[in-house]
Amino acid sequence: MKRVIRNAAVGAGALVLTLVAAVPASAQVVHSVGFGAGVFFPKSCLQSASTNLKCRAARGTDDVLVEDLNSLAFSIKDFRGATGFGEWNITFDDRVELSFGAGYYKKTVPSVYRDFVDIDLTEIEQDLQLRVIPVSAVVRFLPIGEAGDVQPYIGGGVAALNWKYSETGEFVDFDNNNTIFEDHFVESGTVLAPVALVGLRMPINGDVYALNAELRYQWGKGKTGGLENGFLAEKINLGGLNFTLGFQIRF
Questions:
Q1: Any idea what the CATH number is for the domain that residue 108 is in?
Q2: What total of structural domains would you count in the chain?
Q3: Neighbours of 37 (CB within 10 A)
């Protein structure tokens, strides 16, 4: 799977460069900036208290959040959270658009142990936190309409996902008489990942301003370091769906 994702990311990047090189020198070029916000939906799964088999099938057998579900009470869906973005766009003949952008997502999810409490019967609490900063290069295709018209579009490209994951709070050492201790485990990195998108561009009183409603899916997995860094698994799945509403200004 790692090789497939890497090859897909490299292929997406090569496609972006190929399409840009193929644009005729005589093409009408328009620059624009865009910014907006939305919601990130992490790759989720159907969960039950008794088994995580469906979760493993969806997110992978080496995902740290899936492993945490065996002992901690939270949901993958709890990691749904707000995201913001900004981008620079170069549009060729109102049909092909090259975009360079960056976004930001961060969410902290509280959790407790499912089947254990402290000696005073209080919950054993932790905070699970994930942050992702995608820096992307994508190509959008606008096959219908012109600037100033409502235009559906599709596209794809590649993103460098800069991520950070941490677990902070109280933990149980099951190998040492269920001893409870406090700690902070953290790992971060950057992974190259493919992205695919579909959207709708809606003009506002002419062709200078527009609203974009976009669905963008990203793939990718980060390395947590596993038990050496205090985590129960070697990877964290960074895949998921972004739904954003953006404001675009052409000049």
A1: 2.40.160.20
A2: 1
A3: 14
